[in-house]
Design a protein that fits this description.
Chain A has 3 helices and 4 strands. Chain A has 90 residues and is α+β, with helices and mostly antiparallel strands. The longest helix of chain A has 18 residues. In chain B, helix 1 packs across helix 11 and helix 5 packs parallel to helix 6. The chains are: A alpha+beta (90), B alpha/beta (264).
């Protein structure tokens, strides 16, 4: 994740922008009082539910908390392989 | 009635004591009366940074224990009119003082001074609660690195919870060169994360080390960039409107980009 065009062309990302991105994530978690255990649990339980609906690799799921203005947004990035057929025709 | 301002940071070593010493001195140089209070009981340093370490007789602990009057515990800085120091006890610890007792000291000091600057210890425990107990306003000092900014955010949350307002930010040890080559977050990055008002940027200045060695606050030296930055912050504290200069060193390319965007 987070591969920018610059990285694709072999140029390293500035460390200041990496610092900012890392800080934003950790501070959002600090402010919400959300720890790694919470996120891991949410990750697993969400994956369990989603597995009922489509096929995906659990390790490919990326979840993060972001602050947008005054509110927090939970962003989940789930590359799926295919949807399960929930109403199979007999 | 003066203002009580707590100078704090969360993380240690980012320049709280240096900032307190320089702002107190700068305010006195501007003709205000200022008292700097060391709230770091057990690990006092404001006295040595200001060069007043040989003149401490009484501390805030003696005032609380009623061993002496508050006015008698104040050490007058002889280099400038209107500046005094209230030292912390070195042989006690933070738990020997109650927030209410610090509050009472600050309440008394504000009746006789324009500014009461309280130098908080690092951390979020008792020392911080004591230091911020009597404060109306806060100055949070941070450096542009991940650990200092994260801790600053934590402290800002605690200050907001305590109803302390406004909370102003000093961005310390800022290096225009490092920002220019993308190795250091710039002011916009830091403000975007912390979301409080910036009261000044203090550039990295080796003069801070030599002035601390001598016990002569940097603001006595006019020419140093750090000194000028602290003088500007002190003026802003007195209510003067002084724009924050752009310290960033722009590269050749971004100068061209700026030139085009400016003319649009």
């Amino acid at each position: 994740m987070n591969i920018s065009i610059k990285q694709l062309f072999g140029r390293k990302r500035k460390s200041s922008s990496i610092a900012k991105q890392r800080l934003k994530l950790v501070i959002t978690q600090d402010r919400l009082d959300v720890d790694d255990r919470f996120m891991t649990r949410l990750h697993h339980e969400l994956a369990e539910v989603l597995a009922k609906y489509f096929e995906f690799s659990v390790n490919s799921v990326q979840m993060s908390l972001k602050q947008e203005g005054n509110s927090y947004v939970l962003v989940a990035d789930i590359p799926y392989k295919k949807f399960h057929d929930l109403n199979p025709r007999q | 009635m003066g203002k009580v301002i707590v100078v704090t940071s969360g993380k240690g070593g980012v320049g709280k004591t240096t900032s307190t010493a320089n702002l107190g001195t700068a305010l006195a140089l501007l003709g205000k009366t200022a008292v700097v209070v060391d709230a770091d009981v057990g690990l006092r340093n404001l006295d040595i940074v200001m060069g007043l370490e040989s003149r401490i007789v009484y501390t805030s602990m003696d005032v609380i224990d009623k061993q002496c009057e508050l006015s008698k515990a104040l050490v007058k800085d002889r280099r400038v009119d209107g500046l005094t120091l209230l030292a912390a006890s070195q042989k006690n610890n933070k738990d020997d003082i109650q927030p209410e007792q610090m509050k009472a000291i600050c309440a008394k000091l504000r009746t006789t001074h324009d500014f009461v600057l309280v130098d908080s210890p690092a951390g979020i425990e008792r020392g911080f609660s004591n230091a911020s107990a009597g404060a109306d306003e806060a100055i949070v000092v941070t450096t542009p690195d991940v650990s200092a900014i994260r801790d600053a955010d934590r402290i800002i949350g605690l200050l907001q919870h305590a109803g302390i307002e406004p909370i102003n930010l000093i961005l310390n040890r800022f290096s225009p060169q490092l920002v220019g080559n993308g190795s250091m977050m710039d002011q916009a990055d830091v403000l975007d994360i912390l979301n409080i008002d910036l009261i000044g940027i203090v550039p990295e200045d080796s003069g801070v080390i030599t002035s601390t060695n001598r016990g002569i606050p940097l603001v006595y030296e006019d020419a140093s960039p750090g000194s000028q930055a602290y003088m500007r912050i002190a003026r802003r504290l007195t209510g003067q409107r002084i724009p924050i200069p752009d310290l960033e060193e722009k590269g050749f390319l971004s100068n061209i980009v700026n030139w085009f965007t400016r003319n649009r």
